[in-house]
Amino acid sequence: MLNHTVRLLILFVILYSSNVFADIKIVAVVNDELISNLDLEKRVAINKFFYKVEGNAVKEIALNALIDESIWRQEAKKLKITVTEKDFLEAVKQFLVIKNLGNVDLKSYIEAQGLDYKLFVQHMKSKLLWNKILMLKVAPYIIISDKEVQDNRDHITNGVDVSVHIQEIILPASINDNIISDIISDLQNGVSTEVIKANNKDVLFEEASINVKNINADLANKLIQASVGDVVGPIKNEYGSLIVKLLHRSSINMEFANSNVDLKQVHLDAEQGKRYLEQIRVLKTKATCENFSYVVRELKLPEPLDFVVKVKDLSVKMQNVLQSCDVGKIVEVDDGQVVDIIMLCNITKGKADDDIGNTDFIKQRLYMEKLSMQSEYLLSSLKSNALIEKYN
């Protein structure tokens, strides 16, 4: 009762002290945690830049995310779960790799985009807290039976690892079939993304590299049979429709897909790729795995990144390029927006997925599916027991 009274008092002060808080409005309260319009605006900007969230629902999506993350933090506090600096730095490293940002200083990069670094850090740490909560409260109770594994064996592609780079077009349920048909026609005829976006404000475009083993078997088969540039869909459900355009496909030997590669990388944007043409030429002739970093710095190229990664975790384009690359060679991967200069320094050969490997993979996929379902159930339960209020 006391906490509720304090919360109401804080609300009263913020809502009615026009001199101090004239530009601040409370848009939601989660138990005793307040979410302001400034928090919401900053999160919308983060979502638009990093997650390409567009359309009329951007504010609703951002607000729901802020509410969920508040619930996660409060539950973590009850369970005395924390995020260490090591946890955070590892998450940042993974984020930079996933977003293909190279070896940049994340704080400087985010602030250069006009985004709020403090709120972004809170967002990342909240996700880490939620992962730890799931490991404590959900993971121990997930069981995968032998029958489930056997029933899912048809998802495994025999002898070849197939990954695809796709463009996902997500449409809200409110868009009618005629507009969906027009969008599909535009995609098939090569109309640019910008033009389609301009004509359809609520349509969301995303790109992703995925392994066909990780998706619905029907969609996987269609993408395997499709030609590059083909459009698959629409795939409809109660929330909207999904259209998929195949941009690239990689079919590589499973032994190579499961191999670890030691890479040295220089990450350039498109403009730098043009500006540093001569330096790149020199790098290709002078650099070895031993002196790569030294030569990069000597040529005044951006700071190099050195990492070991499993081949099947790389982008589809990189998989294709590395498959025909010799150790000690430098290759370029250009997707039109960024240019990656990559030196292959070592390959630790993996094993082709035998029956045991397939079993482990299927168990892992089923585990992740169940973890996702149970996490939604847990969050729903936590929210039903929380005091959540939204304000217009």
From TrEMBL:
Family annotation (PANTHER family): CHAPERONE SURA
Transmembrane segments: none
Coiled-coil parts of chain: none
Organism: Ehrlichia cf. muris str. EmCRT
UniProt-listed InterPro entries: OMP_Chaperone_SurA, Trigger_fact/SurA_dom_sf
Keyword vocabulary terms for this entry: Signal
Name this polypeptide is given: SurA N-terminal domain protein
